[in-house]
Design goal:
Helix content of chain B: 25-40%
Number of domains of chain B: 3
CATH architecture of the largest domain in chain B: 3-Layer(bba) Sandwich
Oligomer: heterodimer
CATH topology of the largest domain in chain A: Rossmann fold
Distance between the termini of chain B: 59 Å
Number of domains of chain A: 2
Largest interface: A-B, 39 and 39 residues
CATH superfamily of the largest domain in chain B: FAD/NAD(P)-binding domain
Bound molecules: flavin-adenine dinucleotide, iron/sulfur cluster, FE2/S2 (inorganic) cluster, magnesium ion
CATH superfamily of the largest domain in chain A: Nucleotide-binding domain of ferredoxin-NADP reductase (FNR) module
CATH architecture of the largest domain in chain A: 3-Layer(aba) Sandwich
Strand order of the largest sheet of chain B: 5-4-3-6-18
InterPro entries (chain A): Cyt_c3_hydrogenase_gsu (IPR012165), Dihydroorotate_DH_Fe-S-bd (IPR019480), FAD-bd_FR_type (IPR017927), FNR_nucleotide-bd (IPR039261), OxRdtase_FAD/NAD-bd (IPR001433), PyrK_electron_transfer (IPR050353), Riboflavin_synthase-like_b-brl (IPR017938)
GO molecular function (chain A): 2 iron, 2 sulfur cluster binding; flavin adenine dinucleotide binding; metal ion binding; oxidoreductase activity
CATH class of the largest domain in chain B: Alpha Beta
Domain FAD-binding FR-type (chain A): 1-95
Number of strands of chain B: 18
Strand order of the largest sheet of chain A: 12-11-10-9-13-14-17
Structural class of chain A: alpha/beta
Shape of chain A: globular
CATH class of the largest domain in chain A: Alpha Beta
CATH topology of the largest domain in chain B: FAD/NAD(P)-binding domain
Order of helices and strands of chain A: EEHEEEEHEEHEHEHEEHEHEEEHEHH
Binding site for [2Fe-2S] cluster (chain A): 230, 233, 245
Distance between the termini of chain A: 39 Å
Helix content of chain A: 25-40%
Radius of gyration of chain B: 23 Å
Binding site for FAD (chain A): 62-64
Number of strands of chain A: 17
Strand content of chain B: 15-25%
Chain lengths: 296, 460
């Protein structure tokens, strides 16, 4: 059993929890994820590691309620337990293997969408801890859906916040901000890391391809085991089929077949469930975790 | 009674069982078991023992059954096997112990598997539990994976006094026994869990949710004070065909489909994990795994076709499983090979393009080589396809362990007698070494590993 030491609501439908998992905390790196299961009959839910405290032996997760399992998780309080919590899974972000001095010379742009801000955070924090200032764009559907702004401000070089409806900071999609920075503010980037809903990553990748900025995206297909055993998480990258749980979750955004990935995410959504989700998700749609598959 | 024939075993009616997940075979009762046991000739030079990969003293235990001393019979089996209720159910007996039974020359062999199963079930029902060794020797050994090889290795080492911890990646122990083989062949709660509990009762600790190579590496295990490591991580990496359309929604690996159903219990209404219940499903492949996937899909309400490129004679699955599948209504499309999955606009499987095959000259495996018949292409209408083309070892451990030799199929290189690998203090066995094989071979390899580890550590 894995104790929840902290549980708070960051925004409507978005929750943060700290969970005691010393083995995971000891070995995890930015870019990796865990699988959590609540209750004996619970589903195995993959979530990106949002932060970790090696000394306290805790992992921070941030999740959005989109269906039965995440709803169930949201009902847990500090002091409650998860039945299972396994990780770290997947490969760490590639940059942690890079030469720090080389990395310092690079201009890096992070683009976070909605709950995707959570997985971007540990990467930006890692950069900050290694003395690297990076630009960060955080997009949310609306002001109330914006998360981790203060935390991000503390570790980002420049932080650009945007809301789709203009209720806070800039107005417009993250792609608008990228265009503005590159076209109007004379910024250049050597690499872009984009994490958010598939539909957002798709459009960021299309844009950065035009702008010639190599781009890394973090995929979140349906998973079961997370160890390479089931193949549920297969995605097409370039001409190859990859298992996101062991070969990823981060891939070259210019090579990912996003349309296929979006379709595959719908596998367990019945037409009825889809309709319900649309109604329930309503305006949280863009702030999503990437599972909605975007506008259909 | 016809002495040339096995005492028939009671089974759930095919029509009834095709709609539920309860066990197909009901097993013998005491009376039936004693009667069947009397068919054994108690051969001096018992061939059956050589047919059993773990050399159970078959005539000895059967004589005890014939005399009604079931507890004694259980003790004899326990000397060689820690999973008798499992093996009695899933061993390919026809090609092992029963395949060489003298009785089989002029009639049906003794029903060794069903007798072994009876003894194990009886022991469970009568709460016979293994004795825990009096004291441990304080030496820590780590076992990776809680499938049959890991369990067998851990059990043997615990009996010798070692302090054994099994590390399991999934949230439940058992390996393929819990995630792969379905409930209707191998009940989880009663059979698998009891046999795992028996290993725990020997003093073995099982830590679930630990992925070696991710949560902790083998080298770190040594730093944690483990003196030797046994790798029993299985062959869990599924293969796909690489044909167009294979990433469509509704195409699953047998591993995914079976894991959702067995490990995650998706067939039960109170499970949070979804499974796709197709209307017309094709299972591609002809092994045990394909039969299990097909019979699972059938029970979830689908019309099911096994699509296999050779003929019935070459089906690698156990005879009993093929027979059960046919009885239950699985349709066999033999000498048929898929060339493309047909996909609808919204990304779902809508069918499969196949070609008919003919059989040519025998190939390296001795089986006649299937060859495409030109112009025989046809389309099947489907809403799900389950790929059951075999599995290979997961490279997760080998890629994170320096000095661990693997062959070109990513199988860990280990010697047969002691499971010794190229890395000091590291032993391996089961599917991780041989590639996908059988429960009993994995168990045998686990025992060999325990022997190797004991020898290695006693010399230290
Ligand atoms: C590597 C990875 C990292 C992720 N990180 C985060 C994160 O940090 N925060 C966050 O909020 N979400 C994250 N997700 C998504 C999260 O796992 C899903 O939102 C969750 O599984 C939905 O479960 P549910 O039962 O609540 O909803 P459901 O109603 O079951 O599903 C809602 C949507 O999620 C998809 N989905 C269902 N099961 C899974 C599954 N096992 N894996 C992936 N998608 C699934 C469905 O197809 C559907 O589109 C991540 C997913 C992956 C694969
Ligand atoms: C559907 C199906 C049906 C079958 N039917 C039969 C049958 O009827 N008769 C028969 O004899 N055989 C059958 N087999 C084959 C048999 O189950 C296997 O040969 C046997 O289970 C192999 O045992 P093992 O201990 O080597 O590995 P497994 O049973 O595969 O167990 C390996 C365990 O190691 C864990 N693991 C893997 N990597 C790691 C890691 N890095 N860290 C921690 N843990 C890890 C896995 O999660 C798993 O639990 C079947 C197999 C399948 C898939
Ligand atoms: S373990 Fe398997 S091979 Fe050995 S006697 Fe039992 S059924 Fe036969
Ligand atoms: S070979 Fe057959 S008859 Fe002979 S001892 Fe073994 S089981 Fe009995
Ligand atoms: S989640 Fe099963 S192989 Fe990736
Ligand atoms: Mg769900």
């Amino acid at each position: 059993m894995y104790k929840i030491t902290k549980a708070e609501m960051l925004a409507d439908k978005i929750f943060l929890m700290d969970v005691e998992a010393p083995r995971v905390a000891k070995n995890c790196e930015p870019g990796q994820f865990i699988i959590v299961k609540a209750g004996e009959k619970g589903e195995r839910i993959p979530l990106t590691i949002c932060d970790y405290d090696r000394e306290a032996g805790t992992i921070t997760i941030v999740f959005q309620t989109v269906g039965a399992s995440t709803e169930k998780m949201a009902s847990l309080k500090a002091g409650d337990y998860f039945d299972d919590f396994v990780g770290p899974l997947g490969l760490p972000s590639e940059f942690i293997h890079e030469d720090i001095e080389e990395l310092k010379k690079k201009k890096i742009l992070f683009v976070a969408g909605g709950v995707g801000t959570a997985p971007v955070y540990p990467q930006v924090k890692w950069m900050h801890e290694h003395g690297i200032d990076v630009d960060v764009i955080v997009g949310a559907k609306t002001k109330d859906m914006l998360i981790l702004e203060e935390e991000m401000k503390a570790v980002a070089g420049n932080l650009y916040v945007t809301t789709d409806d203009g209720s806070y900071a800039r107005k417009g999609m993250v792609t608008e901000v990228i265009k503005d920075l590159v076209n109007n503010q004379g910024k250049t980037y050597d690499v872009c890391v984009a994490i958010g809903p598939l539909i957002m990553m798709k459009f960021v990748a299309l844009l950065t391809k035009e702008l010639n900025i190599p781009t890394v995206v973090s995929l979140n297909p349906i998973m079961v085991d997370g160890t390479g055993m089931c193949g549920a998480c297969r995605v097409t990258v370039g001409s190859e089929v990859k298992f996101a749980c062991v070969d990823g979750p981060e891939f070259d955004g210019h090579l990912v077949n996003f349309d296929e990935a979006m379709k595959r995410q719908q596998t367990y959504k019945t037409a009825e469930g889809r309709a319900m989700l649309k109604a329930v998700e309503g305006d949280t749609h863009h702030g999503g975790c990437g599972n909605c598959g975007g506008d259909e | 009674m016809d002495i040339l024939k096995k005492v028939p075993v009671r089974e759930q009616d095919a029509k009834v069982r095709a709609k539920n997940f309860e066990e197909v075979c009901l097993g013998y009762n005491l009376e039936e078991a004693m009667e069947e046991a009397k068919r054994c000739l108690n051969c001096k030079n018992a061939k059956c023992i050589k047919g059993c990969p773990v050399s159970i003293d078959i005539p000895a235990f059967i004589q005890e059954v014939a005399a009604g001393n079931i507890e004694e019979a259980a003790k004899i089996i326990a000397e060689s096997s820690c999973l008798p209720a499992v093996c009695g159910r899933v061993c390919p007996q026809e090609s092992q112990c029963e395949g060489v039974c003298i009785r089989g020359i002029k009639g049906e062999p003794v029903s060794i598997g069903k007798l072994e199963r009876f003894v194990a079930d009886w022991s469970r029902e009568h709460n016979i539990v293994p004795e825990k060794p009096e004291k441990t020797n304080g030496i820590k050994v780590a076992v990776i994976g809680s499938g049959p090889s890991g369990l067998a290795c851990a059990g043997d080492l615990a009996k010798k006094g070692y302090e054994v911890t099994i590390f399991e990646a999934l949230h439940e122990a058992g390996g393929v026994l819990v995630y792969g083989i379905p409930e209707f062949r191998l009940p989880k709660e009663t059979v698998v869990k009891t046999e795992i509990d028996n290993v725990i009762k020997l003093g073995v600790k099982i830590e679930t949710n630990v992925i070696i190579g991710k949560s902790i590496t083998i080298d770190e295990l040594f730093e944690e004070g483990f003196k030797a490591v046994f790798i029993g991580s299985g062959a869990g990496l599924p293969k796909f065909m690489g044909i167009p359309g294979e990433n469509a929604n509704g195409v699953f690996s047998a591993n995914e489909y079976l894991t959702r159903n067995n490990l995650m219990k998706a067939f039960e209404t109170d499970s949070d994990t979804p499974i796709y219940r197709g209307k017309k499903v094709a299972v591609v492949g002809g092994g045990n795994v394909a039969m299990d996937a097909a019979r699972t899909a059938l029970r979830l309400g689908a019309e099911v076709h096994i699509v296999y490129r050779r003929s019935q004679d070459e089906l690698p699955a156990r005879v009993e499983e093929v027979h059960h599948a046919i009885q239950e209504g699985v349709i066999f499309d033999l000498l048929t090979n898929p060339v493309e999955i047909l996909v609808s606009e919204d990304g779902w499987v809508k069918g499969m393009k196949c070609v008919k095959m003919g059989l040519g000259e025998p190939d390296a495996s001795g089986r006649r080589r299937p060859m495409e018949i030109p112009g025989s292409e046809f389309e099947m209408e489907l809403d799900a396809v389950i790929m059951s083309l075999g599995t290979s070892p997961n490279p997760l451990i080998s890629s994170t362990t320096e000095g661990l030799e693997v062959n070109k199929w990513k199988c860990i290189v280990a010697d047969e007698e002691f499971g010794k690998t190229s890395k000091e203090g590291v032993f391996a066995g089961g599917d991780a070494v041989t590639g996908a094989a059988t429960v009993i071979l994995a168990m045998g390899a686990g025992r060999a590993g325990a022997k190797g580890i004991d020898e290695y550590l006693s010399k230290k």
